[in-house]
Each structure stands twice: as structure tokens, then as C-alpha cells.
């Protein structure tokens, strides 16, 4: 097994439509725990998202956040909760093409989930202030990756942030051990290790992104693909 190149050919167990429903449900239930431990959204919220929310608030504008490939929705719920704690008016929409993910996602006040691809929202003429995703980039084939970037650049009027793993031996070893306590009865460990093997290094991601997208590093094992429109919507 090598981590020197992306293992694009590997499939995750939870993407198999015939995988165990019980294990899939437990996997969705524990995503929140794992994302909190590894995904650095607290820092992304403080450094990238909160300043945008503040600018929107100063303009008297309630913020709208879209989470693409939201799974069971824990990242979106967490961002909305953080924004509300900071006193911002905010609403969120999570989309995922997998009906099983949308079935596991729980709506809340101002938080909705819908089975859809980002393309459908573009076709509907929808727009959001902020677009996010978590652990989506490594999932996508080359054409899907390009389509996601194009869609999110159109959907996100102020900022798009796609967060994923930075592939590397230390990330693999740390997750291999760290996931042991939460893995039993789930696909978390086996799919997490596959995800690391499918993920990009910072150099690979930088190479893949067209301008004005750029790579940021909110943590040693994390990558962000960040897009700010060249002409962001002017706030009144
Ligand atoms: C590893 S899960 C991550 C779920 C969630 N974002 C999280 O971090 O817990 C990846 C999700 O991406 C979704 N997905 C796969 N291909 C997609 C695509 N082309 N567009 C949007 N979502 C996609 C899958 O259905 C799956 O729910």
C-alpha cells in the first residue's frame, strides 16, 4: 500500500447501495464526533465564515449557507449553531444526492435538507452567501470535481469553502489508531482510511484548482479549496 499517489480507483463501503443499513445508520450518527475531532470547522468558522457573516449583518442581510454533499448534516448544524451563538441571522440548506444521507439528516429551525445535486440548484437560479462542503472533494471523479467547482462558484456569492483531508502517512497512521474506539459497527475506519488514500496532497490540489480558487491549510491534516468571487455581490 502506498500513499505516494491518489488511489482514485478505491470505493468507499458506504457508497455501495447494498451496504448494511444498520452500519450505515451508525456511521452517519458518528460522523459528528469524527468531524469535530478532525475537520477544523471551528477554525474555518472563526477565520473565514464569521467575518462574512459580520459583513452581511452590517448590511442588514440574513446569511444563507449551502452545504453540498452534507451527509447527515452535522457540519451544517454546527456552523448554524455557531453563527446563532454569535448573534447572526442565518439559515442553512444541506443537499446530498444519496437518499439515505438525506433520510438520516434532521432538519431544525432554519435548517433544511434536500436530495439534490448542486447542478439542480444552479439550474433553479438559486444563490447563497456561503457554500461549504466536508469530505466531498476526494469522492469526486475528474469531471464531477470540475463541475462542483463551477457550480459552487456560481452558487456562492461571497465565499465557497470545500474542506477535505490532506493525504499523508501521518494522517493515515493517526486515523488508523484514533478511529479504533468509534469504529466498531460502522464504516468509519475502513472508509476513513480509503478516503485518506483518495485525498489530495496540498500540491496536487493546488495543481487541480483553476484561478481564483486557492488552497488553504486550517490544520496539518486538512486542506481547503477556497473561492471568493472576483466581483462579490455588493452589499447595500
Ligand atoms: C464522506 S460523505 C461526507 C458527508 C458529510 N459532508 C460529512 O462530512 O459528514 C460524502 C458525501 O458526499 C456525497 N456525494 C458524493 N458524490 C457527490 C456529488 N457529486 N455531489 C454532491 N454530493 C456527493 C455522498 O452522497 C456522501 O453523502
UniProtKB/TrEMBL annotation:
<dbReference type="InterPro" id="IPR041698">
    <property type="entry name" value="Methyltransf_25"/>
</dbReference>
<protein>
    <recommendedName>
        <fullName>Methyltransferase domain-containing protein</fullName>
    </recommendedName>
</protein>
<dbReference type="Pfam" id="PF13649">
    <property type="entry name" value="Methyltransf_25"/>
</dbReference>
<feature type="domain" description="Methyltransferase">
    <location>
        <begin position="65"/>
        <end position="154"/>
    </location>
</feature>
<keyword id="KW-0489">Methyltransferase</keyword>
<keyword id="KW-0949">S-adenosyl-L-methionine</keyword>
<dbReference type="InterPro" id="IPR029063">
    <property type="entry name" value="SAM-dependent_MTases_sf"/>
</dbReference>
<keyword id="KW-0808">Transferase</keyword>
Amino acid at each position: 500500500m502506498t500513499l505516494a499517489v491518489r488511489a482514485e480507483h478505491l470505493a468507499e463501503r458506504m457508497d455501495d447501495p447494498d451496504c448494511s443499513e444498520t452500519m450505515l445508520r451508525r456511521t452517519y450518527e458518528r460522523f459528528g464526533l469524527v468531524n469535530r475531532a478532525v475537520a477544523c470547522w471551528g477554525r474555518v468558522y472563526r477565520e473565514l465564515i464569521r467575518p462574512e457573516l459580520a459583513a452581511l449583518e452590517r448590511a442588514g442581510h440574513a446569511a444563507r449557507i449551502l452545504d453540498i454533499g452534507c451527509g447527515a448534516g452535522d457540519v451544517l448544524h454546527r456552523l448554524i449553531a455557531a453563527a446563532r451563538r454569535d448573534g447572526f441571522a442565518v439559515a442553512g440548506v444541506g443537499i446530498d444526492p444519496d437518499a439515505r444521507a438525506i433520510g438520516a439528516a434532521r432538519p431544525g429551525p432554519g435548517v433544511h435538507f434536500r436530495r439534490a445535486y448542486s447542478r439542480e440548484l444552479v439550474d433553479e437560479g438559486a444563490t447563497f452567501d456561503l457554500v461549504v462542503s466536508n469530505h466531498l472533494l476526494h469522492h469526486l471523479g475528474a469531471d464531477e470535481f470540475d463541475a462542483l467547482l463551477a457550480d459552487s462558484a456560481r452558487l456562492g456569492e461571497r465565499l465557497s469553502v470545500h474542506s477535505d483531508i490532506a493525504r499523508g502517512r501521518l494522517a493515515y497512521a493517526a486515523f488508523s489508531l484514533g478511529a479504533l474506539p468509534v469504529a466498531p459497527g460502522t464504516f468509519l475506519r475502513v472508509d476513513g482510511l480509503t478516503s485518506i488514500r483518495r485525498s489530495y496532497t496540498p500540491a496536487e490540489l493546488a495543481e487541480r484548482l483553476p484561478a481564483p480558487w486557492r488552497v488553504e491549510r486550517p490544520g496539518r491534516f486538512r486542506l481547503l479549496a477556497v473561492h471568493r468571487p472576483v466581483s462579490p455581490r455588493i452589499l447595500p
